[in-house]
Amino acid sequence: MSVNKVILLGNVGRDPDVRYPSQGQTVASFPLATSERGYTTSSGNQVPERTEWHNIVMWGRNAEVAEKYIRKGTRLFIEGRLRTRNWEDKNKIKRYVTEIYVDSFEMLGGGQKGGETTPVNNQAATQQPVQPVQAAQPVQPVQPVEQNNTTAEGDVLPF
């Protein structure tokens, strides 16, 4: 058995690029940024904030919703799967890209009444009532645990 599941919570980097391929199914793509907070280690070292950019791809109804409602800065909760594809560019160089193919997503904090979530997925178009998001209590940053890259037998691990 294997599992290919990605869960992301981040901010849209630019308005979706929506295309209508000849097969008739709408496709939308855009970057999504996720960030890890910066922190200070117990020894006083500053670790800066780290932002990762993810290539998001939506198909069908999800792409249509993205075209209408998702804009740069929209906060999204995404569930999907990783896909890697490759091609040869005009200079005959093999290129690779890894994308997140969206199965379902929620737009956070941008609904009609601010603070609501709007769930969207590829299932039947049954509308569920939207529940307001509760304000979270501030969380103190957790200090990272220093990892020892050896096993109990003393073998050094490659990470």
Features:
159 residues; mainly beta; OB fold (Dihydrolipoamide Acetyltransferase, E2P); 5-stranded mixed barrel; two-stranded antiparallel ribbon; 1 helix; 9 strands; 6% helix
Describe this structure in words.
The protein has 159 residues and is mainly β. The protein has a single domain (6-121), classed as Nucleic acid-binding proteins (OB fold (Dihydrolipoamide Acetyltransferase, E2P), Beta Barrel). It is built from 1 helix and 9 strands. The chain has one helix spanning 60-69, and strands at residues 6-12, 17-19, 27-36, 39-40, 46-47, 50-59, 75-88, 94-108, 117-121. The strands form 2 sheets. Strands 1-3-6-8-7 form a 5-stranded mixed β-barrel. It has a two-stranded antiparallel sheet with strand order 4-5. Strand 8 and strand 9 (117-121) form a beta hairpin. The radius of gyration is 20 Å and the shape is globular. The model is unreliable at 111-117 and 122-135 (pLDDT under 50).
Mind sketching the topology for me?
Elements lengths: L5 E7 L4 E3 L7 E10 L2 E2 L5 E2 L2 E10 H10 L5 E14 L5 E15 L8 E5 L38
Parallel strand pairs: 6-8
Antiparallel strand pairs: 1-3, 1-7, 2-3, 3-6, 4-5, 7-8, 8-9
How confident overall, as mean pLDDT? 79
Determine the fraction of residues in helical runs and give it as a percent range: under 10%
Largest sheet: 5 strands, mixed, barrel
Strand content: 35-45%
CATH T-level fold name: OB fold (Dihydrolipoamide Acetyltransferase, E2P)
> What is the rounded Rg?
20 Å
CATH superfamily, called what?
Nucleic acid-binding proteins
**CATH architecture group name:** Beta Barrel
Number of strands: 9
